[in-house]
Amino acid sequence: MQTRFCHINCLSHGISDRNSSCSTFQKSDWSRSRRLMSAVKNIMFCCVALCLTASSLWAQGPEMVGSEAPTSSEPIIKLDKPTVRINMIETFTKVVELKQQILRVDGFDPNVLQVTAITPNQIRLQAMSQGVTQVTLTDENEKVYNLEIYVEGDVRYLQAMINDLFPDSAVRAIKVSPESIVLRGFVAKPEQITRIVDVAEQFFPIVINQMDFGGEQQIKLKIIVMEVQRAKLRKFGFNFLLLGENGYFASTPGQLTPLASLTSAAGSAPAAAVRTSALADSTLTFGVVRPDTIFNGFLEALKKESLLKIYSNTELVASNGRPASLLAGGEFPILVPQSLGTVSVEYRPFGTSLEAVPILLGNGRLRLELQPEVSETDFANAVTLSGTTVPAITTRRVNTQVEMNFGQTLVIAGLLSNRDKAETHKVPFLGELPYIGAAFRREQYDEGETEVIIMVTPEVVGPLSSEEVPPGGPGRFTTTPTDRELYMDGMLEVPNYGDMCSGCEAGCVSCQAGVSGRVISSGGPDQDYRVISEGTVIEHSPIQNGTVMPGPGPEPVQMLPSRTYQQPVPNELPPVAPPAAPRIPDQTSRSQMMAPSNSLIQPSSGMIQPVSGTVPPRSTPAPRRPRTANGLIAPGGN
């Protein structure tokens, strides 16, 4: 091998004498050529390695640095579409994997996203801050993949708290900026919206509320209608009557004081009678009576000012988009002709009416459509039909729309109505004379002014749950008093102790007013009372602060102190707790009355009266003694 190589080198240097010169060249240049060839090999190897390294780094980009293998908790997204959207939460990571090796990674924002290489076909995406960016991947086959990265803010703690505090709501928290957040979704109750916003404000100073009520929303409209009517009336009139033996002269414009009768026979004394009821129309009446002449004058001078205020406070509840109406006034009948000469009656409403349609806009706002109307009867333009006067109707109507927040108040004013009415009743020619013409005419001037103000306040309401329903309502805890309580005590109502029940056993808890044979005393254990016969009712004296549970009894009974009797009573009943009411109505109709502890009760002439006495003799059956505890008296037995 060395001889062949030497021969080739000699030929390359133009040496033909193989035997003489080749050996010299072999000895001098062999070591140098060998070193040169080794150096060339090293240089070529280094160049190839550098090229491969540069190509790999160029494909990976400046941000691609070595990274650890993906963990089991990291989600791996395998791309099979050219365009993919990936949602991430800040500080979270995801792994993207391609089927081919990744050649290039371009186009992402390093402030939002960091990209690191794991394997030739895997990269790790790490969300740095909230924002949107795009990543372009190119594999070794020059196939391009576009990744749309959407990085959301970290609101996991707030979301978990909302789900824990309001489990029946479906609200999602979205972080918009480091200081603001958006709440979207539905709540089960309208009042939960404010509570969720209060919780979110503890995490972010700016809370954008986009929550809605999931069920059918009910809107309560608080409507206040105020109507003021001012009227001024001025009247002036003068009527007179001159009656003599041979005739009379009278001026009564407007029928101020019409005459009831007139008598004036020739040669006889005149006589005139005036209706007594007509005198009420005049404010000044005077007259002069002579044997042959009577003169009467009736003067009416009236000035009146009146003021009327109508105040109506009403609450309406309407569904979203459905109308609600209000009418504060009345209806008047009118006759409507029908076929075959028949007449029917219809009613037309008048007064102050309001029709409202609430429309929810979300975020605590609504659109309110209002149509208030004020109408009144007008007899000045009335018509007469078949002898029946049908008045006309004057109407003021407004139709308006407004957008407002819940809790704000809308005021509608300016519904004014002015009416001036003047009437003059006079005698022709005489009533037009200056000065003296006032005696032959009558004037009436009427001024009217009406102003209506309407205030509407919308609120979101919902039905009450069973736990929120109050235990009672008006009249449930009171009842009508007895005769003694009404006439003697002056009480209009007394506490209600429940319905009377008959046939109750001892210990009945559902009956609060009629446990047969049971008397409850709240005076203490020292007040020990007994019932002589079973089924009796004893009403305790109010002086001793007792409470009685009435029940039907066959006959009046006697009540004695407990120290008088010595026999025990079998089949004792357990004590019963006293009721919460302080007293009960007097049941005088059931032959019951109060008695002190040292007196006896016996019948006398059909009435129960307290009498003084001693213990009955031993020959009579002695009653059995019931147990008493804490002022409780159990029914006795035979």
UniProtKB/TrEMBL annotation:
<feature type="compositionally biased region" description="Pro residues">
    <location>
        <begin position="571"/>
        <end position="582"/>
    </location>
</feature>
<dbReference type="InterPro" id="IPR032789">
    <property type="entry name" value="T2SS-T3SS_pil_N"/>
</dbReference>
<dbReference type="Pfam" id="PF00263">
    <property type="entry name" value="Secretin"/>
</dbReference>
<feature type="domain" description="Pilus formation protein N-terminal">
    <location>
        <begin position="86"/>
        <end position="151"/>
    </location>
</feature>
<dbReference type="GO" id="GO:0009306">
    <property type="term" value="P:protein secretion"/>
</dbReference>
<feature type="region of interest" description="Disordered">
    <location>
        <begin position="565"/>
        <end position="638"/>
    </location>
</feature>
<feature type="domain" description="Type II/III secretion system secretin-like">
    <location>
        <begin position="301"/>
        <end position="461"/>
    </location>
</feature>
<protein>
    <submittedName>
        <fullName>Type II secretion system protein D</fullName>
    </submittedName>
</protein>
<dbReference type="InterPro" id="IPR004846">
    <property type="entry name" value="T2SS/T3SS_dom"/>
</dbReference>
<feature type="compositionally biased region" description="Polar residues">
    <location>
        <begin position="586"/>
        <end position="607"/>
    </location>
</feature>
<dbReference type="Pfam" id="PF13629">
    <property type="entry name" value="T2SS-T3SS_pil_N"/>
</dbReference>
<dbReference type="InterPro" id="IPR001775">
    <property type="entry name" value="GspD/PilQ"/>
</dbReference>
<comment type="similarity">
    <text>Belongs to the bacterial secretin family.</text>
</comment>
<dbReference type="GO" id="GO:0015627">
    <property type="term" value="C:type II protein secretion system complex"/>
</dbReference>
<dbReference type="InterPro" id="IPR050810">
    <property type="entry name" value="Bact_Secretion_Sys_Channel"/>
</dbReference>
